[in-house]
């Protein structure tokens, strides 16, 4: 895998409270056409969830998100993560992600941060928090002076706003959690998750990321 941005138009962002839910949840997402998933390291169950998906759902590409320290980089790799996503970046974290050998998306929200990453040879980034940081209009404005940068915007994106992002030439995919609503996960309604995933996967028809 060379790029996270080209795996699917939408990357589900998962906050897993119970590692036992991870495998059926991701199987439902894959069945709906979303093979790449980001498990955020926000819960005690996160690494066990990554490990379970990596071992039991080979058709999925599981990554670790909310990676903020080199130790989390190492732990994510050990659990089987195939890509890494961070909400921001420092030089120390960037070097750890670069040394990991897997694709990674460091987070940015300003022009200067984008330029600093470009100087360091990184062209693919997470734009976060997307809606709060200026949304699709901000990314559209960035394309003129910095066309070499590509983004996965995440944060406040839903099915209504995703197509606007996906239509931009510098957006490869979007991250979101609308296809994994908390009530559906709590009820273990995997059929509903699959339906929502299928609708999200279809958003590529109006965008440029596939």
UniProtKB/TrEMBL annotation:
Keywords: Carbohydrate metabolism, Lyase, Schiff base. Coiled coil: none annotated. This is 2-dehydro-3-deoxy-phosphogluconate aldolase. The keyword Nucleotidyltransferase does not apply. It catalyses: 2-dehydro-3-deoxy-6-phospho-D-gluconate = D-glyceraldehyde 3-phosphate + pyruvate. Belongs to the KHG/KDPG aldolase family. It holds the Pfam family Aldolase. It comes from Streptomyces kebangsaanensis.
């Amino acid at each position: 895998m060379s790029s996270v941005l080209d795996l699917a138009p939408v990357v589900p962002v998962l906050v897993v409270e119970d590692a036992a839910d991870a495998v059926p949840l991701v199987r439902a997402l894959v069945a709906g056409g979303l093979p790449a998933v980001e498990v955020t390291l926000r819960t005690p169950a996160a690494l066990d969830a990554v490990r379970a998906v990596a071992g039991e759902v080979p058709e999925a590409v599981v990554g670790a998100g909310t990676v903020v320290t080199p130790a989390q980089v190492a732990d994510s790799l050990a659990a089987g993560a195939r890509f890494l996503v961070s909400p921001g970046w420092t030089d120390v974290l960037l070097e750890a992600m670069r040394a990991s050998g897997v694709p990674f998306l460091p987070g940015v929200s300003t022009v200067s941060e984008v330029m600093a990453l470009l100087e360091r040879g990184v062209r693919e980034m997470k734009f976060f928090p997307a809606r709060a940081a200026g949304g699709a209009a901000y990314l559209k404005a960035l394309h003129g002076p910095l066309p070499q940068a590509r983004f996965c915007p995440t944060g406040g994106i839903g099915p209504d706003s995703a197509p606007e992002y996906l239509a931009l030439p510098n957006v490869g995919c979007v991250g979101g959690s609308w296809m994994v609503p908390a009530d559906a996960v709590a009820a273990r309604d995997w059929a509903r998750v699959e339906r929502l995933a299928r609708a999200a996967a279809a958003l590529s028809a109006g965008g440029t990321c596939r």
